[in-house]
Every structure is written in C-alpha cells, then in structure tokens.
Amino acid sequence: MSAPRHVIRDRIDSFPTHQIDGYGVRPGHALPFGATFVPGGVNFSVYSRGAEAVSLVLFRRGERDPMAELPFPDEFRVGGVWSMTVFDLEYEDVEYGYRIQGPAQPRVGDRFDATKILADPYARSMSGRAVWGVEPDWDDQYMYRSRLTFDDFDWEGDQPVRIPVEDLVVYELHVRGFTRDPSSGVDQPGTYAGLAEKIPYLKALGVNCVELMPVFEFDEFENGRLNPETGERLYNYWGYSTVGFFAPKAGYAATGRFGMQCDEFKNLVKQLHAADIAVVLDVVFNHTAEGNEHGPTIHFRGLDNRTYYMLTAEGYYYNFSGTGNTFNCNNPVVRDFVLSCLRYWAGEYHIDGFRFDLASILDRGPDGAPLTNPPLPEALAYDPLLKDCLLIAEAWDAGGLYEVGNFSNSRHWSEWNGKYRDTLRRFLKGDQGTVGELATRMVGSPDLYRHRGALASVNFVTAHDGFTLADLFSFNDKHNEANGEGNRDGGNDNNSWNCGAEGPTDDQDVLALRARQQRNALLLLLLSQGIPMLLAGDEVGRTQLGNNNGYCHDGPLSWFDWNLVDRNTDLLRFVRNCIAFRAAHPMLRARRQPCGDYVACAQSSDVSWHGSRAYQPDWSPTSRLLAMMRTGQGPDGEPEFVYVAANAHWEGHAVELPALPDGHRWHLFADTSAASPDDVSFPGREPLLDDDSSATVPGRASVVLVGRRPENRD
C-alpha cells in the first residue's frame, strides 16, 4: 500500500549512500568548511589542494586510540575539497581529526605526513588543554582534538553594543591574569566567569570597551620550561600562538573540563554587553603554533603547507613574526579562512571588534614583500558582516615593516599609535625637542591620519608588551631575569625613567615624583584626541618589578593584585575622574582633528597653542612646556573651553591664561602636583580659579582648567 498523501517523507539527503568502517555516510557539502550539523548527521569538509588521500579519524572523548577511520571516497572530492556526511554519531562524545596522504617534499614546500592526525582548522571547540596548567599526556598521538559544538546558546536578545567609536575608552586585559590572584575574591578565579564577576569594577572605572588578550585556543605548555634560577614553571602565558582559531580557550573556562567553554565565554560577552561594555578580541593571524621546520605538525602544515605559509624558494619558512613562521594571509584560500573566522566570532559570539597582532604581515605578499594594495585589509574593511566591528592594527611586524599612519587608506581601520606612545614617554622623561610632536599627537596625529580622522589613532602609553605604567617611572632598564633568558628578551627602547632610583625605594621624594608622572601620563592620554587605551592595573599602580616582557609568567608577577584597589584609591579616583571628564566634553572626542577653525559661539578657534605667554607657544628644541586650549560647543549649546598645560621641566612655570568671553571663568579640574583629593575634581564640580589671568604649573606637572560660567550658589 502506498503511503498516505499527507505523510511528509524525510529529506532525501538524510539517508546514507555508503558504509565505511561501520558508519553510514554520503557525499558531503563542500561548503562550509569544518564540521557542521545536517539532518541526521554531521558534514565534514576539509581543504587540501595537494592531498592524494584523506581520512576522517574518529575518537571517543578521552580515549587515546581511534574508534574508527573513514577514508573519503574519491568521488567525495570536488577540486581540493573533501567532504562527507557521517550519520549516527554521538555528538557530545566524539572527537575528530584528519589523516592526509601526500608528498613529503620540503624543498618545494610539501610536508604531508600520514603518521600525523591533524586538527580541523575550522573546529569550533578543541580538547587537550581543558584545564589550565594540567600536564598533558606527551605520548598522545593526537594532542589537540577537534570537537563538535552546538550553537544553541540563548542570547536573550543580546546584540553588539555599537558604542560610537569616538566614545570608546579601551581597557586591555588578560582573561586569566585579571582574576587569578587570590585577592580577586571571585568564585572561579582566572576564568571567563571570574572576569564576569568584575564587571561592576569596570563599570565604575568608566571604561566601556575591554580588549581581551588572545582567547583563541592555544597551548600554555608551548615553549614551556623551568626558570633555571628559581625552578618556577614558565608558560606560554600570553597566548600569542594560536592552535584553534574558531575555538575559545578551554583552560580559561571554569566549565572547560565539561566542554562548556563556548557557552561560558558567550555568557561573559552577554554580561559585558548588558553593562554597555564592548568586547574586542586580540587576534593573531600573523603566525601559528606550528613554528618553523622543526615545529610540530598540528593542522595547516600537514593539510597544505604551501598554501598556508610564506615559504622561501628552498621551502623554508619566512619569519616576519619572530616566532618561526608567517601566515600567508594574502593567498586567496588563507584570506577566506581569516574572513570566515572573524565573521564567525562577530556573528556567533557577538564580538564588537578585533585588534590584529603584528598586522603589517597582513600587508605582505606570498614572497614577503609589502603589497601596494593588499587585498586582506581591504576585504576586512568592506566585509558586510564586519561592518560595525572595530578593526585595530598593530601596524608593525618583527621583520621591520613599520606602517603606523600607512597601514590602510580605509577609515574603517584604526591603529595602535606607537608614535603617540613614544612621544608622550619622551616628553614626560624630559627629552628635548618633543613639544611640537606632542602637540600633534594630542590632537589626533593629523600628520598621520588627517585623511582618516582622529579615530584612526588608538592612543596608549603602555600595553601588555612592555613596562606597566608604574614601572615606566621606576626603572631605567628592563629586568627580565625571571624569564630565564639572561635578560636578553624584551625591548630596550623603553623611553623610561626611574625618577632618581632604580626600582623599589623608600625615598619619599622619588615616590611622590613617580606618582605625579603616572598622573601626568594618564591625564594627557585621556585628554588626547583619538581612542584612548589603558592597560589593566595601571589605574592602581600595578608593577611587574621592571619586567617588560612578562609573556611566560603565570603568577603574581603578571596577575592583577586586587589589594592595590584599596591601597591606591587616590590614583584610582584620579583615573575615574579623568575618564568622566573626557565623557563630559564632546570636543575631546571629535572624529575630526581640530585645525584652527573659528567656533562662533565661543569666539575662538577650535584649538590654540600657548606657552608662558598666551598664544605664544615655544616650539624650540629646549622647550619643555606645552599649553593647549580646546574650544567647542557643549551638550547644552553653551561654549566650553579646556586648557591643558603640561610641564616636563624640573622647574615650575607661571603661564598667562587666554582670556574667556564675558561671563565665563576658569575652573581647576586637575593639578597633578597637588595631594589628593586636590589633584582632581569631579567633572562639573571644579572649583573656581582665584586668578583668571595666570596660573602656575609646577615642575614635572600638568594642570587642566575648564572655562564655563560660574554656578550661582546663592
């Protein structure tokens, strides 16, 4: 009897057509790459242009030996893509990889090895490092196992926060280090969940964007070793060596041992968004964890070495990353991989932006030469799915390609402004010939970004790579002995100054000067035009004891000491008020750099420069005093004036103040030489200046005034 007409049959492609090693399979879908759920099964698709044969290797979770190995029939291949749908898998209990057969001819770039089981570069979850710091089984034939992931998280209506870029205050932090210290007081220290508990602190500080150091799956044991002096275990702590580009780091999840790292990370993003805090990921597409020809074979090398890496004519690896290999970003296949990865994080994880480590490599062609019009940065800038994402380039690489100001012509790209960092450091140190350049940096670096606007500049004084702010004014030289590399690692061009004593001291004069210098740096940073970025812990004086390359330390040296929040409340209050002041004055956040245009309501130009005398700046090489007045229209339609005087000289200077329109008076917002609480006011509550015609800027200090009508307190 025929089936009733109202019965709907299962889809025709939900039935196997072949049996391989006990599993029903059928020809798969070539796209998308990776493992995706389809009716009744899982579609596996992998690209390997030079492969002669491909097998899918299946494991039960946690077992060392495979439970099945399924060769792809040749008719399952389309071009260089091998795809197969496998039915009746136990989704939550299966791990998978690939075995590729092909030529092993290193001199022409082929490094196929059928003895290796390869991870899926598109795997959305990985096992093998599920709990941070737990020693793995070094004899395991398959160290980094690909897993299946259900995309069933309930976002409860969450969307990327879409904070206007001009309003961002970025806070760079390490997920584990932010709460790992026992002083954090969180339930799950060192995890995504632990970070979520600290959202009220971030909110109170006033930052509205966190830039997370790498959270893509990496191996903390890579290059692991013991400190020869102390016996301390040294790790790949920072994580700038990616294993799984689509997979969140399981060892950062309290639930990682249960395979729930994806949901835990999504929950962190959702909670940050609920607090109106954007999430930017630090991504590493300049190299991978496979290293040079002596490194491990994890995925790309065994899948298609010639496609994924820049190779010399002899088949060796170009090393523009300083880590052994260089990702071949402008190969069309690799370009598609990068785009697919970022689209996935933007779409599936609601990520608000990406910071690209050593991004100048994205501008290099397959032979390593810089390209005039590199396709990948342009593709990222105009990708429809990434339209609202912030894109930030670290516009240099380890091969000497320095492109600050020249990374891209697109307004969609911003850059870590290394020239801002170096100029501000040199000025505060007291170097000659820095006043003119500091003036340029503080108004959005128009020499670098006039055609792209001030928001192309991400301004910073410190970042994870280098001294903390406290150490910048406590050490003349790096002290990286604890890294076990003879103090040879880390940069030597720090532009730091110890203020009179190297390292810890009881000298109260030195300590007071260091505190003043930290306030100078933070104040000028937060009043500069562009996107400001703070390093986590600088707001409370965190130190790394002079270590400017803490990449290998998972311990108190690199962790956020939450005792500092109570110990350094004065500095924390100063930073909070400076962030609030920036938010209160739109002209400091303008997209366009000021260029002297007349502001009618204020009867003044949008920027003017001053010295000891009003409107008479001293640009000479020996000058160490810079004064600037910014003018604009406030939110209430009233004119507003902000006067900044920065004195890097060891002697104080009297300055003549520019006259204000009738009815307006100068009020004191900040004086970094004053003791707390007189060093800074809450915005809108600044006390009236006694004398509107002049002020004194003490030695090594900065003063900020705001011009407005006095409040009627009668």
Structure description:
The relative contact order is 0.08. It contains 14 helices and 34 strands. Helix 8 packs across helix 9 and helix 12 packs parallel to helix 14. Among the domains are: 136 residues, Sandwich (Immunoglobulin-like), CATH 2.60.40; 115 residues, Sandwich (Immunoglobulin-like). The protein has 714 residues and is α+β, with helices and mostly antiparallel strands. Pfam families: Alpha-amylase, CBM_48, ISOA1-3_C. It comes from Kutzneria chonburiensis. Keywords: Glycosidase, Hydrolase, Transit peptide. GO terms for molecular function: limit dextrin alpha-1,6-maltotetraose-hydrolase activity.
What's the CATH C level of the domain at 12-147?
Mainly Beta
Q: How many helices does DSSP assign?
A: 14
Give the overall form. Answer: elongated
Please name the fourth-level CATH homologous superfamily of the domain at 12-147. Answer: Immunoglobulins
Based on helices, strands and strand pairing, what is the structural class?
Answer: alpha+beta
Helicity range: 10-25%
The tally of beta strands, per DSSP, is 34
Q: How is the biggest beta sheet arranged?
A: 8 strands, parallel, barrel
CATH architecture label name of the domain at 12-147: Sandwich
Return Rg in Å. Answer: 28 Å
Low-confidence stretches: 1-9
Strand content: 15-25%
Strand order of the largest sheet: 14-15-20-21-22-23-24-25
Mean pLDDT: 95
Ends distance? 97 Å
CATH topology of the domain at 12-147: Immunoglobulin-like
Protein name: Glycogen debranching protein GlgX
Enzyme class: hydrolase
InterPro entries: GH, GH13_cat_dom, Glyco_hydro_13_N, Glyco_hydro_b, Glycogen_debranch_GlgX, Ig-like_fold, Ig_E-set, ISOA1-3-like_C
Domain Glycosyl hydrolase family 13 catalytic: 172-582
